[in-house]
Design a protein that fits this description.
Length: about 140
């Protein structure tokens, strides 16, 4: 679990959780933790290892490839972001430069790819000019890499 996962489940501040997780330097005394803080952190149930909604981070390699495939077929990032429940900027970052992303988002991207890869975006209400623009940009991006 990351510090942010602990914060989300325990209702504590991220600064406090990071202080608790920080390993003391050599010669530095260990800090006392308030009982309420310890109870809040220790009371978090650990998720099952193979549960798909398990919080955590994973590489963006596969997700980036899947989003690029959808772009090559003409799906705009705004539409994909809307279907994934994230901001369009997140879709662009995953597709181009972000190194890690949450596991649940990676699984949603995989499912969305399976759902949309064989569907023409124009048949789903995407304007033909927008689909053509996305295809052109994806082709240019493919040539650069």
């Amino acid at each position: 679990m990351s510090a942010q996962d602990i914060v989300d489940r325990a209702g504590l501040s991220v600064t406090l959780v990071r202080r608790v997780l920080r390993v003391p330097q050599q010669g530095e005394a260990t800090r006392d933790i308030a009982r309420m803080t310890a109870d809040a952190i220790l009371g978090i149930p650990l998720p099952a290892r193979r549960e798909p909604s398990t919080p955590g981070l994973t590489s963006t390699a596969e997700s980036s490839r899947l989003l690029a495939d959808l772009a090559r077929t003409g799906w705009p990032a705004t539409m994909l972001a809307q279907r994934l429940g994230v901001h369009a900027r997140t879709v662009a970052e995953v597709r181009e430069k972000r190194h890690r992303l949450h596991l649940d988002l990676a699984l949603r991207i995989r499912g969305l790819h399976r759902e949309l890869i064989d569907i023409d975006p124009v048949s789903q209400g995407i304007r033909p000019a927008d689909a053509a623009r996305v295809r052109t940009a994806a082709a240019r991006h493919t040539l650069r890499t």
